[in-house]
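Input (structure):
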């Protein structure tokens, strides 16, 4: 939408809905003849073209931290332990929160794009960047005091000292991560994914060179790897910002900085905070399971095995996370455009893809279960224990993939508050208590702890699935009208003739 069009009356979410949804399905009554095969194939193609690059982006961003740890590993066991501890601490206290807060843009930007209210996308982006950068300030203080915090938590003093030094050099990168999350979602909701992937590829390649220079060719050592993280994140920000600024694809959605972004911040937070809670509650529960494994008999074996399971699960999770991002884009775009039946079709398509992906990846894991442990350890005891754990891990990854795409649907619809309640109940009223009961009372050990996660995933999947299948997609469009009411009023007021 051009500037001259901004005084037009706005309807939900900032446009008037049409009777036709563009898929051959009327808004009222749906398509009584069922969804044609061609529509399903077309939707699957859209999901694949969206999800493929987004999966690559997730993997590449994950690899930035992994590459740094790999370089640090050549400096010694203490350096490796400190860097790993700092990375885990940073993920729990910072990066997960940034991801959660930024996911509110899946709702706001996605629906605004579908509604063709392009100017509002830039306003939402600026508002999100302002909020996330503001939140980064107290988080940076926490990272600055990583060493004393870890000491209070009872960690080894030498490892805490290494982790503290590493975390301090990661602080500049925290602000970059906040911007990356915002700009990436801003572009993603416009179905612009290949430039984001290209920026991630360039950043990762540069990061390898940075790590080699800063770790081995300077006196920084471990701190050089952390500094390389920060530099690489800022390079990624620069590449994305240049694309937004100069690309014709963003000419309608980015009109430059505006004071409008400072209005209605509380309305943005009403979705951003539940989004953050939704993401953090899940990620923290997995980290807690690894911490609990240290209290089991033979803690070295249990902690090593569950750490490998967590790393494996995190790596595989990037695939359904890409699908999740794709469906949140499709659902929010279609609801914003007033096409509820197309949004429903997008959900069915991504569920089919997630189930197929879960079966395929789970089968591969089970086939390689006897050799996968050698990737992480040469200890026979660890490898054999992992071989027994992998079928359980395959089941949890299957369920995690389904909940991931259902959570993406929730973000696209603006159900973040519901998702936060579901995750709270699933992981902290069912999952963690079940893990403690199985692991420590019934003495099932590490497998019992992971079975607790499976219990949480079952409850989470069932809850989100019931909510999804019982959704009246026509009424969902009306809900979106209420969701964006504050923004509509503010937008109209600021652009009154």
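Output (sequence):
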């Amino acid at each position: 939408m051009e500037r001259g069009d901004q005084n037009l009356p706005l309807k939900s979410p900032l446009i008037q809905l049409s009777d036709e949804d563009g898929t051959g399905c009327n808004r009222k009554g749906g398509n009584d003849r069922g969804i044609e095969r061609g529509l399903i194939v077309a939707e699957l193609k859209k999901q694949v073209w969206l999800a493929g690059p987004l999966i690559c982006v997730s993997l590449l961003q994950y690899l930035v931290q992994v590459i740094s740890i790999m370089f640090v590993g050549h400096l010694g066991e203490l350096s490796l332990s400190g860097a790993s501890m700092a990375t885990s601490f940073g993920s729990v206290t910072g990066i997960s929160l940034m991801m959660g807060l930024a996911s509110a843009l899946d709702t706001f930007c996605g629906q605004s794009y579908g509604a063709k209210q392009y100017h509002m996308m830039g306003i939402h982006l600026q508002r999100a960047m302002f909020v996330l950068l503001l939140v980064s300030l107290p988080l940076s203080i926490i990272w600055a005091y990583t060493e004393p915090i870890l000491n209070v938590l009872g960690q080894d003093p030498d490892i805490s000292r290494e982790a503290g030094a590493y975390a301090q050099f990661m602080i500049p990168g925290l602000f970059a991560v906040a911007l990356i999350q915002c700009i990436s979602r801003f572009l993603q909701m416009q179905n612009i994914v290949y430039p984001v992937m290209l920026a991630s590829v360039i950043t990762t390649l540069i990061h390898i060179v940075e790590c080699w220079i800063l770790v081995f060719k300077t006196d920084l050592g471990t701190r050089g790897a952390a500094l390389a993280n920060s530099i690489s994140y800022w390079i990624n920000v620069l590449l994305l910002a240049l694309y937004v600024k100069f690309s014709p694809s963003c000419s309608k959605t980015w009109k430059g900085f505006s004071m409008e972004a400072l209005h209605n911040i509380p309305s943005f937070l009403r979705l951003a905070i539940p989004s953050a809670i939704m993401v953090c509650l899940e990620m923290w529960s997995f980290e807690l399971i690894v911490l609990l494994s240290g209290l089991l008999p033979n803690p070295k074996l249990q902690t090593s095995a569950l750490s490998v399971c967590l790393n494996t699960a995190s790596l595989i999770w990037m695939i359904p996370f890409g699908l999740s991002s794709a469906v949140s884009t499709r659902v929010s775009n279609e609801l914003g455009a007033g096409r509820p039946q197309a949004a429903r079709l997008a959900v069915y398509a991504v569920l089919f893809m997630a189930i197929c992906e879960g079966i395929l990846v789970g089968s591969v894991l089970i086939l390689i279960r006897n050799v996968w442990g050698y990737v992480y350890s040469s200890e026979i005891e660890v490898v054999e224990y992992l071989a027994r754990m992998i079928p359980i891990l395959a089941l949890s990854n299957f369920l995690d993939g389904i909940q991931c795409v259902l959570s993406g649907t929730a973000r696209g619809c603006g159900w973040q508050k519901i998702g936060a309640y579901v995750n709270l109940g699933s992981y902290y009223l069912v999952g963690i208590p079940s893990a403690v009961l199985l692991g420590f009372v019934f003495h099932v050990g590490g497998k019992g702890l992971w079975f607790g996660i499976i219990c949480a995933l079952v409850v989470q999947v069932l809850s989100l699935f019931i909510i999804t299948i019982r959704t009246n997609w026509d009424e969902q469009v009306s809900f979106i009208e209420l969701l964006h009411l504050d923004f509509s009023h503010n937008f109209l007021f600021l652009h009154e003739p």
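Notes: Residues 272-478 form one domain. The chain is about 80% helix and 0% strand.
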